[in-house]
Amino acid sequence: MNILVCIKQVPETNKVEVDPVTGVLKRNGVDSKMNPYDLYAIETALRVREKTGGTITVITMGPPQAAGVIREAFAMGADEGVLISDRKFGGADVLATSYTLAQGIKKTGDFELILCGKQTTDGDTAQVGPEVSEWLNIPSVSNVCKIIDIEENSISVEMDMTDDIEIAKVEYPCLLAVDKDIFMPRLPSYTRKINTKDKQITVMSLDDMEDKDEKHYGLNGSPTQVQRIFPPSVNAHREMWAGSNSELTTQLLNKLKEMKFA
Amino acid sequence: MDYKKLDNEDLKYIIDLVKDADRVLYGENINEEYSHDELSDTTSYPDVVVKVTSTEEVSEIMKYAYENNIPVTPRGSGTGLVGASVAIEHGIMIDTSLMNHFLELDEENLTLTVEPGVLLMEISAYVEERDLFYPPDPGEKSATIGGNISTNAGGMRAVKYGVTRDYVRGLEVVLPDGRIVEFGGKVVKNSTGYAMKDLMVGSEGTLGIITKAILKLIPLPKKAISLLIPFPTLEQAIGTVPLIVKSKSIPTAIEFMQREVIIDAEQYLGKKFPDNSSDAYLLLKFDGNSTEEIERAYDSVAKICQEQGAIDILISDTTEREESIWKARGAFLEAIKGSTTYMDEVDVVVPRSSVNEMVEYIHNLYKEVNIRIKSFGHAGDGNLHAYVLKDDLSEEEWEEKMTLAMDKIYNKARELEGQVSGEHGIGYAKKSYLMKSLDPAHVELMLGIKKAFDPKNILNPHKVCQL
Amino acid sequence: MAKLVVNQSKVGNMQELISICPFGALEEINGELQINAACKMCKLCVKKGPAGAIEYVEETKEEINKSLWKGIAVYVDHIDGNIHPVTYELIGKAKELAEKINHPVYAVMVGSGISKQCHEILHYGVDKVFVYDDEKLDRFKIEPYTAVFEDFVKSIMPTAILVGATPVGRQLAPRLAARLKTGLTADCTKLEINENTDLVQIRPAFGGNIMAQILTPNNRPQMATVRYKVMDAPKRNQEEAGEIVKCSIESEKLNCKVEVIDIIPKEKEQFIEAADVLVVAGRGIKKEEDLAMIKELADLLGGQMACTRPMSEAGWVEAKRQVGLSGRTVRPKLIITCGVSGAIQFVAGMNNSEQIIAINKDEHAPIFKTAHYGLVGDLYEIIPNLIEQIKAGREA
User: Fold this and answer.
1) Which CATH number fits domain C2-58: 3.30.70.20, 3.30.390.50, 3.40.50.720, 3.40.50.2000?
2) What is the C-alpha separation between C14 and C32, in angstroms, rounded?
3) So where does FAD get bound (chain C) (predicted)?
4) C283 annotated as belonging to a binding site for a ligand
5) With an 8 Å Cβ cutoff, are B141 and C325 in contact?
6) How many CB atoms lie within 10 A of CB C394?
7) Which fold has domain B102-219?
8) What is the ipTM of this complex?
9) B445: nearest Cα among B125, B199, B99, B174
10) Do B269 and C310 touch (CB under 8 A)?
11) Which of A44, A56, A116, A153 would staple A129 via disulfide (CB 3.0–4.6 Å)?
């Protein structure tokens, strides 16, 4: 089976701050790493490949340094890597990002199974996967928490729907967004890292895409615009209640109602 | 020993002295946890617990206790494992947990001055926020620094950075008669008479009560990477350790672990470990200022492991990965505890060149004694933790088999020129093993030291060298 | 078309300018300043660099006619006709927004055999409920659901669409947004609307460490997802109001490649780390039997019981429910501690919880330093009373 995994490089920590003067994220000196949720997608791909054979390709969009996460995927066991990198892709929102990825995927090859992590730790939207599936015109399933069966033409999975588990069978080609903890991701292997250190990574820019219209990419292709970013208000509120036990009960009940827990 | 039994008058004196009734516990108000520590089955209640807040208070209490011949037991968080903080002779317990203030961070001398009740986890959070580092890293992060100093706690970074004693520059101590003295200071070098500060470190509350400590700090390494190395057998894993020690790059930690303990931890935490497919693992940690620097440092070690038959070398280089490994490592003690009804532990330390022999000996001991024994430990510094498990044995069977296993382990450690305790101390529970391992002249000196500090023997009696 | 243009002659001190970029997207190549693929178009180099060194060049886009788009639509989230309460919360928000711009409020319900259930929506004050009722739509499947929603948008042209950030909503909304080539903002915590019908969307990013305010200025419809329990639901009216509009599309558009084999109720979360609500039993619980009321309260609040170290050491509660340094680290939306003193060992395992309520008799208990709401009282009176009142409220 040809498996593709979408991955992303994110800052090592999401304890970021907003510069109060410029309103821009302070991220100097912050190390990068692979989005932790993507590790589950890679692990799922490796488990599927153990059963079906085939190849695993990873694809990422980002600056040249994002090649690091592809090397890491190699050290975990991925076979091929594609880096989509062009400054014209800068400032992309969900729509433009998913479009760019879909363009890159189309150029890379035909895949029966495309895997994504649930979300990234920086953007936190959990939307890129489903939007990619739309651009590729293939079915997609999110919240996949278990692979039940891998068949010739389809894959059966369990989806975590909060209160229920839904069991669905999806025809290839399809896209699955996997949940955290579907499998414990393996650690990258030093041996593999050494063996793959000269492995070629395919780099793609706008010129390599089928659609070369700049208007569809980056800031230009993004319908949403971030007007400003600001720090969240912190819950530093402390309050002590005194009174009879029955008064306290009433006060507590009202507070629980206000918080929508009761 | 003839001590005065604490009476109402003594109690009244103490309450008047402290002037805060909430900080003096007696009778029913003494919580059960004050009667024991984290592991040992040594149980005994104090007559009164005083939650002290100042050196002067400690001094006044000691003066009174000294004059009236009342035994005193100091205590921090009570996380010890050998009964050192249990009030065997009852009397007064001095709880230092409210003396938990940071007194001074001296960035010019790179020292931190703290009260004894500050917790280890609070120290690391406080200094790391300021890009500084207090390297000793015992597993129990809610222990007080006073307790850590009293046992000369070691922990996981000892291979590279040493133990608590190496990071104590100075101490303020209240002597058993109430006098307040200072040992050491902010100085880096010190040849001024006997090494009193070093004598206090590891004295388990028998020589004086620590009321202030000056700790040495170093700059915080910016990045840490761990290697988890699966081996086909425990022998191969442990056999590799001396070669790593010999190589020029120094990990901060060299730990070994076996699959069964990993599985206990997985069950205890309800979380999978990144790999449990092999029987034995080494876990190495390296720190430095950049990923590249650390990669260079571990490269030669990785090659040694490959040559010694490691199945693979797995890299843990992100917060999530580090947490999935070290959180499990930190839970081993609790996990093993949760897998049985009761257990006792040994904390022997042997020269690093003998660590493989000791580990294999313990590993095979269960066959000889027919009792479950689990072990893990700091392979890199020769300090091994083995846990003898009671499971569903009857009291007599347990007593018999446990004693046999313990004797055998300590005998083996002696044979390998090791010591009874690496980092947990002697306290009350391990005295007999200490006595067996020491030369009588050595014991005589220790008793003499104790007498010089505490002629009336009121401070933490029955501990360490007093049978 | 917007882009950044470097005017090499005005760059001045190149290293100084390079250091302005927080993303490392400026670099020197052959003596010239270049922008690489790390650029996020934050324009900080334009604002903070030497005047004219880097210019933001924008060609005006053709503006859309916003007045053609009218109404705020809410997706009715349901499984087999059981409507998810987030739907009413979104209707509440939609009404508030619609009132400001004088637009109607629509609901869209998709499913099979739902002609009865859709009437429930009319009790909440919407203008129209568009109902797609077809056997092929019996359960959520991404392709046919996207197809009918697209049909609705193309014929009705709402200016904004609100979708619950449920497992269904979080799949349907992005799929639809891509098909409509429009913007979608996930997990909004605050929504407002400008007079020109631009939806002001505020959402957390970086795990909640920053907030972003987002607009979709030149695309319609504007789409947002919102989590459950963020907005307020309106009161249910006794009377129905508004209109049911039956809709349908060609059957072949409903074909799909996903087959839902079964929906089974999920086993209750076993791990306290995954629970939204935790009720913690501390040493203030005197007897093992008394844990029953803690469990009952946890159940009533849809959460789990947890405990402190003494409780698990006494063998009253399983070790895996122990919170703290030697137990588990939890971060629920709500944690109620009952008779917990608040030793550092415990607090370190829970102090990142969103809302912390502590009940303890001792007003000096350290837990009150951590709690957002501290109740100095007797848990043996407060907890049973509370349980009774919650139950009474449910029956009413």
Assistant:
1) 3.30.70.20
2) 9
3) 283, 308-309, 322-326, 360
4) yes
5) yes
6) 9
7) 3.30.465
8) 0.86
9) B199
10) no
11) A116
